[in-house]
Amino acid sequence: GQDRPMPKPFPTPIVIAHRGASGSRPEHTLAAYELAIDQGADFIEPDLVPTKDDVLVARHENAIAETTDVASHPEFADRRTTKTIDGQTITGWFVEDFTLAELKTLRARERLPQLRAGNAAYDGRFEIPTLAEIIDLAKRRTRETGRTIGIYPETKHPTYFARIGHPTDDRLVAELRRAGWDSADAPVFIQSFEVKNLQHLHGITKVRLIQLMAGEGGPADGAVPSYAAMLTPAGLRQVATYAYGLGPDKGQLWQGDAPTSLVADAHAVGLKVHPWTYRAENVFLPARFRHGDDPATHGDVAGEIRRALGLGIDGFFTDYPLIGVETRSAA
Ligand code: G3P
Ligand code: CA
């Protein structure tokens, strides 16, 4: 109605709350997303995986023992199994083996309780949210605050899920369409580490697409030989045919203390740059979550963001959106 403030356009560079305010609440819970919005984040980031009945829910990986209390539910003991997903063999419980109704009986748990004891205090309190609930939250908070709150979803393991009969990118677009957000001006970015799914998305939606890249290796769908090849001038021109921007590992912005040419090279072909992930716990994260983190910067989230802002980035992912917003204001 007319009593509601009109949404304002996004400030730039955009602050993307990585898994919500995941430095301060258990990741991928409505509480983590809501706190991120309270702290001024422009976008909240859900990683998405499908349930057995094809509902997209927010989890960083389909294995859920590390971030829920599933292991303490005797009724699900026989769901424990071993799978190989994109080359990694994991024993545990998997989202795609649970209906949404079953998943909703679980409660979120902090992944890194030794590092984030304050978060662990919330263990057992929050449900696993659906994409639909996250969209509703973003819309409600947009109405209440008069700021535009966007979502920045990532479909995890899209080729794997399509192969086992759960095509997640098409589900995502269907959900966005239902929300009136399947358009170029919707407050949405879709991101992926894979390539073929982004090219498929380019054909079915006008929503802005972000090609994620890691510091090592290459896309799980084998579409290009490596992320290093993607960063060559020819590789970047190819990405620009389907994507709006790049989501590099923040380590790719630097060679020692000197900037690499990544930001300039991406901008030269019209790609925006949104690096990930600025957080305080760099040193102590398990190796598979460390992604180019520099031990020398432990604790200096603001300093790291400030240096990246100096390179002309267009947005950034952070576990600490309040630090992100304050650092942007001071820059
Ligand atoms: O999506 C950007 C960043 O979130 C990639 O890392 O592993 O946290 O999804 P991850
Ligand atoms: Ca992500």
TrEMBL record:
Reaction(s) this enzyme catalyzes, per UniProt: a sn-glycero-3-phosphodiester + H2O = an alcohol + sn-glycerol 3-phosphate + H(+)
Key word Signal present: yes
CDD domains membership: GDPD_ScGlpQ1_like
PROSITE patterns cross-referenced by the UniProt entry: GP_PDE
Listed GO MF terms: glycerophosphodiester phosphodiesterase activity
Top EC category: hydrolase
EC number: 3.1.4.46
A Pfam family recorded for this sequence: GDPD
Entry keyword set: Glycerol metabolism, Hydrolase, Signal
SUPFAM superfamilies, A to Z: PLC-like phosphodiesterases
GO CC annotation: periplasmic space
Stretches assigned to the GP-PDE domain: 13-328
GO annotation, biological process: glycerol metabolic process; lipid metabolic process
Record-stated family: Belongs to the glycerophosphoryl diester phosphodiesterase family.
Protein name, per record: glycerophosphodiester phosphodiesterase
